[in-house]
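Figure 6 in text form: structure in, sequence out.
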């Protein structure tokens, strides 16, 4: 039992959830772009990670800001967003990093 509790605690910490975290705590979630098609981008985080329709995700390549997407569809383990062409500096590619803040 103690080993299972320790394992679960490590999983929570790896996902940015620490002791004292409440439902109102803002947590940064990171993922990767897994697919692109036209103006749409699929990301490797989803509802199980706290991602919701309307969230915005920043896109990075090599630590440099590339642009932003707005999430329009969420499944438990994936999200799909539309590229914000007004501030996106380059075409998002598979493997680019994404980051968003969730509660």
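Output sequence:
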């Amino acid at each position: 039992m103690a080993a299972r509790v320790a394992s679960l605690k490590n999983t929570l910490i790896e996902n940015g959830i620490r002791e004292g975290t409440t439902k109102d705590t803002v947590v940064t979630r990171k993922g990767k772009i897994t697919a692109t098609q036209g103006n749409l981008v699929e990301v490797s985080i989803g509802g199980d990670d706290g991602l919701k329709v309307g969230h915005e995700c920043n896109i990075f390549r090599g630590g440099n800001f590339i642009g932003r997407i707005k999430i329009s569809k969420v499944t438990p383990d994936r999200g799909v967003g539309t590229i914000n062409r007004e501030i996106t500096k380059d075409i998002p590619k598979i493997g680019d990093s994404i980051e968003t803040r969730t509660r």
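Caption detail: The two ends are 29 Å apart (CA to CA).
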